[in-house]
Amino acid sequence: MLSYVYFGTNDLERAIAFYTATLAPLGMERCSTGDPDWDRISAGWGIYEDDGARELAFWIGKPFDQQAATIGNGSMVAFSGRSWKAIDDFHAAALANGGSSEGPPGLRLHYSPDFYAAYVRDPDGNKVAAVCRGFRERQGT
After folding, report:
1. N or C: which end of the chain has fewer CB within 10 A?
2. Which residues contact 57 (CB under 8 A, 6 or more apart)?
């Protein structure tokens, strides 16, 4: 359904540090386009192959209009985690790397009996979530 998602940032190095730490527990690794001009103004996690013919990625970078990055009211990206521990680690890494909590890890029974999620804001104020589905109790670690 999606090819990519792009969030603007006002401090690329800070955003890279934040997302490298918070996306690692979810198994997401940095990807690169191989274009030095693009890679100088943005960073991505996920899949970028064959010059973008195969892409499923999350990108951060300077806004294309060269204006300051701002947050969208009601905008959010939710990443998938494989375990409750991954969601817990995502939330902890976000807080340790300049993010703020918008909802600690836990079951959200009002959505579904297996909807375990955490919500954070990145250092630029963008809302990001991590969600694990398929379990109704904590798995072994």
Report:
1. N
2. 3, 4, 5, 31, 44, 45, 46, 47, 48
Q: pLDDT, tens digit, for every residue of 44-63?
A: 999 999 989 999 999 999 99
As a whole number of angstroms, the distance between CA 85 and CA 138 comes to 8
Residue at 139 is within a domain: no
> 75-112, pLDDT tens digit by residue?
999 999 999 999 999 999 999 999 999 999 999 999 99
Is the pLDDT reported for residue 40 higher than 70? yes
- CATH (domain of 114): 3.10.180.10
Q: How many domains does the chain have?
A: 1
Give the sheet arrangement for strand 42-49, strand by strand.
4-8, 54-61, 42-49, 30-31
